[in-house]
Design brief:
CATH superfamily: archaeoglobus fulgidus dsm 4304 superfamily
Structural class: alpha/beta
Distance between the termini: 62 Å
Subcellular location: Cytoplasm
InterPro entries: Endonuclease-V
Pfam families: Endonuclease_5 (PF04493)
Radius of gyration: 21 Å
Helix content: 25-40%
Low-confidence stretches: 6-10, 81-93, 204-208
GO molecular function, one term: RNA endonuclease activity producing 5'-phosphomonoesters, hydrolytic mechanism
GO cellular component, one term: cytoplasm
Oligomer: single chain
Order of helices and strands: HEEEEEHEEHEHEH
Length: about 210
């Protein structure tokens, strides 16, 4: 490759890097704005179901709402395509996969599944950037929740478990927080990786 080709290659790389930094700065500003709406103290009137020795759930006659419907959300991506035709069809996409939502009735002994839905990703080009996972996955999961709301589904979750970090995040505002604020629903983040070890250690010293 001559110097002209090297120069153009370098220009494209610099342009891509500059664009990525600009996107991260924009996303960081959005995170900061949404974080101002984050509620970190429990303020819901839930009463937890009490299991009996028979395996049934005892519902006490007290003021408050029984915590009954707990949802879980996740987005998974396909790394392998089943056929050459599928590979050709997906050649122009950055990723393909599936967003899913499941709701359980936690007052039943078997945690009965009362609702499940999914959303297929066939043309997905939002990049994965560490600590900005919410901008890749939150819009997908919001569609699933909004679909339940639009149909007045009686099993809409009171609490949502999210495959991603919440407060244990470099800026204290991970996917679980992001989704909770936008959907106006209490969430618990269940991250597979610890991205803020110092904050985790502080929590541990506080509860012990």
């Amino acid at each position: 490759m001559d110097d002209h080709g090297l120069r153009h290659g370098r220009d494209r790389g610099e342009s891509s890097s500059s664009s990525s930094i600009e996107i991260q700065n924009q996303w960081r500003e959005i995170q900061d704005l949404l974080k101002e709406r984050l509620i970190t103290q429990d303020d819901f009137p839930w009463k937890l179901p009490i299991p009996s020795s028979s395996g049934n759930v005892v519902v006490e006659e007290e003021e408050g709402t029984l915590l009954k419907y707990v949802g879980g959300v996740d987005v998974s991506y396909s790394k392998e395509l089943d056929s050459a035709a599928a590979a050709a069809a997906a050649a122009a996409t950055a990723a393909c996969g599936c967003g899913s939502l499941v709701v359980l009735d936690v007052t039943t002994p078997t945690l009965q599944v009362v609702y499940q839905d999914f959303f297929l990703l066939t043309n997905f080009d939002v990049p994965y950037i560490p600590s900005f996972l919410a901008f890749r996955e939150a819009p997908i999961l919001l569609q699933l929740l909004q679909k339940m709301k639009n149909t007045d589904n009686p099993f809409y979750p009171q609490l949502l478990l999210v495959d991603g970090n919440g407060l244990l995040h470099p800026r204290g505002f991970g996917l679980a927080c992001h989704l909770g604020v936008l959907a106006n629903i209490p969430t618990i983040g269940i991250g597979k990786n610890v991205t803020n070890l110092l904050l985790l250690l502080n929590y541990h010293s506080f509860i012990t």
